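Researcher: Go.
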Amino acid sequence: MNEKRFNSLDKYYKKRYGCKVFKVSLDASFSCPNKDGSKGKNGCIFCNGATGLGSKDDSLKVQFDKVKTILGRKWSNAKCIPFLEANTNTYGSLEHIKAIYEELLTYEDVVGLNIATRCDAISKEVYDYLEELSKRTNLTIELGLQSSFDETLNLLNRGHSKGDFTNCVHELKRRGIDVVVHIINGLPYETEEMMFETLKYVNSLKPHGIKFHMLYIEEGTRLCKMYEKSPFPILSRNEYIRILGKQIGMLDKDIVIHRLISDPNAQKLVEPKWLTRKFELLNDIDKYLVQNDIVQGKYFEFR
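Model: Structure:
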C-alpha cells in the first residue's frame, strides 16, 4: 500500500500505540447552548438535530459495545477511543460531565477520549478538569470553526465569533490539551480564497489536528429551506478535490488530518449527491495528490 501524502490520523495512532485504533462515536444526550435558548433556539442552519449514531436511548455502554463489536470484527487486537460527538459535550454541570467521562475511561481497550464541543461552552471549572484529565489519558477536544469569517459564522447562526474561537484554542493549548479544528468548504457565498484564508487561520492556531468537511444540505434543515428559496452555488466534486488538495499542501506538516470529507445520511441528502460515494472519493483525492505532486506542508511557505 502506498504511503499517504499527508499526516493521517491512522498513521498517527499506529505510531503512538503500535496498533490500529478506532473511534467509537457516542451520544451522551448533552444539550447545546445554541438550541436551548442560552445562545439561540434553532442551532446552526446546517444542523438536522440528528447524529447518525445509534439510539441515544441506549446507555453509553450499550452504544459502545455495539460499535466496538462491529469494528472489532474488522480489526482484531485494536484499541479504541470513545468519541462524544452529538451536541455540546462540555455543556452541563461538572459533576455530570465527570460522571460520563470517567465511566468511558473504564471501558475495555480504551486508550483516550475525544470530546466534541463549542468554543463558548467550556466553563473555568471544566477547563480545570480537562487539564487534569489530559494528564491521565489521550484527551482531545474537537471544536467546530467552519469558517474564519465572522460574516459567514453569523449566516450559519453559530452564535460565536472568530475571536471567541481563538481564545478557546489558546486556553486549551495553554493547559496542554490537544485540539482538533473542524472547517467546512463550500459554505454559502464563500470564495475559494476565503476557504484558503480559513486554512491559513487554522495554521496560525497550530492545533493538533483538523477535520475537513464539504458542505452538504439535508432535508429538514434551515439551510435546506434557504437553498430551496434562493439556490447558492455548490462545489462540484472536482472543485472540492482541487481546493482540498491545495489546502493539504498549505497545511502545516505537523497537523494531523482526522477527516477529508463529510459523511452525510444518504437518505436525507439533498446536495451534493456525489458525497455518497465515499470510498471512491477518498481514492480520487489520493490520486489527485499523487498526480499533482502535493504533499502536506509543501506550500506552507505561502501561508
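Model: The longest helix spans residues 60-74.
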